[in-house]
Amino acid sequence: MLGGCATSSVTLLGGEQGAATGALAVLDERGGDAAVLDQPNSRASLGTGTHVRRLDGTDVPAEYREIVDFLPEKPQEFTLYFYEGSTRLMPESEPSLRAMLSEVARRGSAVDVQVTGYTDTLDDERTNDRLSHQRAREILDQLVERGLDARTTRPVGRGERDLAVPTADGVREPRNRRVVILVR
Amino acid sequence: MFSRAIAAFAVAISLSAPAIAEIGRVKRVVGEAWIERGGRRLPPAPGFALLESDTLATGRNGRISITFIDNTRFSAGPSSRVALEQFRFDETTRRGTFVTRVNRGSLAVVSGQIAHENRDAMRVRTPTSVLGVRGTRFVVTVQ
Q1: What is the residue-wise DSSP string for A120-159?
Q2: pTM for the whole thing?
C-alpha cells in the first residue's frame, strides 16, 4: 500500500538513470499553471487548493519504489548502416546488429519492434522509397529467422525523408543509408 | 471547465489517426488486472495491444505495466482504475495528444515523445485536477 499521504497527490521524481528532472504543472480551469513542480521529490496535493512541498532526499521515495520498479524497461534504439544502393550491411554495423538481435531476444514475448529504413539522396524518390523498404525488410527477415513473430512488426521505408545528415539532392552520404530499429 | 480546455486543445492539434490502432502494449502483469473495452473485461497477457478508450484496472494485489508507441511508460499499482481517454500520435512528426484519467489508485509514468514535442500535449486528469506533463518521471495517487 502507498502510505504517508492521506490525500490525492502528484510527486515529481528525479530523471531516470541520472537524467535531468523534468517538470509538471497542476493546471487551473483555464489551462494556466496553478502550481509547477520542477524539483526532484516535490509533491503537490490535489484537491481543495494545491500545496507543494519537498520530500527528503532525491532518491525515489520508499513508498514508490515498488511501482517505479514495475515500470517497463526503457525503449532502446539501434542504427545500422548500408553500402550504397544496397541492402548489404556495412561491416562496422555487424556488432550493432548482433546487439539488437540479442536485445530483442532478451525482452521476450512482450517485445515490440519498429524497423524503419532510409536512403541518401542519390537516386530518385521512387527508387529510394523501394530501397529503404528493402533495407528494413532485410533486417526484419533476420529478426523473424530468430523467432520474432512477424505479425508484431512491419518494415517501413521512408526513402530520403528525415535525413540523419541533411544534404542537397543527389548527394552520397553514408550516414543517411540506414535502418533504425526501435526495441520496446 | 477543465473538459472545455482539453477539447479546445484536442481540436487545435487534431491528427488523422485511424480509428482503431494500437497505441501501446502490456509489458508485465501480476495479480488481478484487466482491460475494460466497450463494457467487456479482457485479460491482459504480456504483448496485449491497447486501444484508445481502454481502461486499465487492477485488484488489491494487481499490477500492470505498459509501453506506448510514443515511448511513454506506465506502471499502475494495486486497486487502480486508469482510463486512456485520448491518444493521438503522428509517428512522422512525433506530435500528438495524450489524455489519461486516474480515477483511483496509483500510476507511475515516464513520459515519451508526445510530452517532449509539445508543452502540455500530455495531460493526466484526476477527479479533482488536471496535470500538464512537461517530463518526465512522476507518480500520481488518487485516494
Answers
A1: -SSS-HHHHHHHHHHHHHHHHHHHHHTT--GGG--EEE-T
A2: 0.85
